[in-house]
Amino acid sequence: MDLTMLALCGIAAVIILLVLGVNVGLSMFLVGFFGYALATNINAAYGVLRTTPISQAGNYALSVIPLFIIMGNFAFASGMSAGLYNAANKWLSKLPGGLACASVGACAAFGAICGSTAATAATMGVVSIPEMRKYGYADDLATGSVSAGGALGIMIPPSAIFIVYGISAEQSIGKLFAAGILPGILIALLYMVTIIIQVKRRPEIASAPRSYTWKERFASFVGLIDVVILFVGVFFLMFSGIFTVTESAAAGAFLAMIICLVKGKLTWKSFKKTMSDSIKTTAMTYLLIIGAMVFGAFLAISRMPMVVANLVTSLAISRYVIFAAIIVVYAILGCLMDSLAMIMLTVPIFLPIITTLGFNPIWFGVVIVSVVMLGVITPPVGLNCYVISGITKDVPLAKIFKGSLPFAIALLIAIAIITAVPQIALFLPNLIYG
C-alpha cells in the first residue's frame, strides 16, 4: 500500500477508535505502532516502542507539565478564587451585569495560576454562580459567563495546551506563554462587552448595578496578595531570564504550597489529595503525549504531512483561503474531541503546511488555542458546560449551552481580530525575546 494512503487510513483508524470510546493516548499509540510496522517492519516498530516512551517520560522539557499542574492544584486548595472574585466584583460592580463581568475577570486571573479550562470553570463556578443567582441573574447568563470565562484558563499562561503545542511544534514555550497574554485580555474584554450588550437589551436578566466605596474597593486588594505574589513571582522569574520555564514552574509549585500552608489550608489530607489529583492528571497527559509521539513517528515515516503540504501549497489559491480551511477543520474537531488530543493529532499534519505557507508558528499556536476555547463551550463536547452542569444540577444543560452561545460569537470575533492582526499575539514575544 502507498505510504500516504496508509497514513490516511491510520488517521481514520484513530478517529474510529475515539468514536468507540477508546482512550485517546492508547488509540494513537496502537495505530502508530501497527502503522509503523506496516510502513517498515515489526522490528523497527519495536524499536520505536523501546525508545519513545522512556525518552518522553525522561524529557526535561515535559517536566514543566506536572509542575504547573501541582501549582494550580495548590492554588485551588488555598482558596485564592474567593479573593479574586471579591476584588473583581468590587471594581466591576457598576457595569451592567457587573457580577457576570466580575466572574469573567476572576476567571482570567485564576487562569493565570491554573492553566486548565475545566478547573477554572469549576473553581470560579462554585464561588460566583450562587452569588449571581442570589441577586436574580438569569441562569443562562450566570452559567454561560462562567463556562466561557473558564476557557480563558488555556489562553492566559501557564497553559497546558501551549506546553503541548510547543513540544509538538518545537517552539519556545516561553514565547507561547508571552503570546497568549494580550489575546487573553482581548477575549476577556469582548466577553464583558457581550455581557453588557445582553443586559442592555434585556435588563431583567441581571440585577441593577451595585456601588461600592473607594475604601471597599481598595480593601479588596488584600485578598489578592497571595495571587499577586504567585503570579508576579513565577512570570518575573520566567520572562526576566533568571529561571527557565521549567525552573519557574518548580518555583511556582513550591510557592503555591507555601501560600497554602501560610493560609492554614494545607493539611495532610489536602496535601495527599492535591498530589493524587496532580499525579492522575499528569499520567493522563503523559499517556496522550507518548501515544501522539508514536503516532507522529508513523506519520513522519510515511511522509504524509510533507506530501500534503507540498500538494496544498502547489494549489493556485490564496494562502489565506488554505489557512481559513485549516481553522474550519480545527473548529469542527474542537466540537468533537478533547483539546489536547486534537493538538497532538493535528499539529504534525498541519504545521508543515503553515510553515511552508510562511505563517508564524507562534501566532498559529495562539489561533489554535482560540479555536480550542470555542470547542469547550459548544456542543456536543463542550467540556466547560458539562462542568458547570455538575455544579448547577437544577439548570438544564441546554440552557447552559444557550447561555454560552453569545460568548462563542464573541470568541469568533476575537479569532478574526487575532488572525487579521498577528501583532496582538506577537508583540510581547518580540518585546521580551527579541
Descriptive keywords:
434 residues, mainly alpha, 21 helices
Describe the structure.
The protein is an all-alpha fold. The chain has one domain (61-433). The chain has helices spanning 3-19, 24-39, 42-57, 64-77, 80-92, 98-111, 117-134, 139-150, 160-169, 173-201, 214-219, 225-239, 245-262, 268-302, 304-313, 319-334, 339-356, 361-375, 383-391, 397-420, 423-433. The longest helix has 35 residues, at 268-302. It is globular and about 70 Å long. It starts with a helix and ends with a helix. 50% of the residues are buried. The mean pLDDT is 86.
Contiguous helical run count: 21
Q: Percent helix among the residues?
A: over 70%
- How large is the radius of gyration? 22 Å
What is the end-to-end distance? 47 Å
Instruction: Tally the structural domains.
Output: 1
For the largest beta-sheet, the strand count, sense and barrel status come to: none
Q: Determine the oligomeric state from the structure.
A: single chain
* Averaged pLDDT: 86
Instruction: Identify low-pLDDT runs.
Output: none
- The succession of helices and strands, N to C, reads HHHHHHHHHHHHHHHHHHHHH
The secondary-structure class comes to mainly alpha
What form results from the Cα inertia axes?
A: globular
Strand content: under 5%
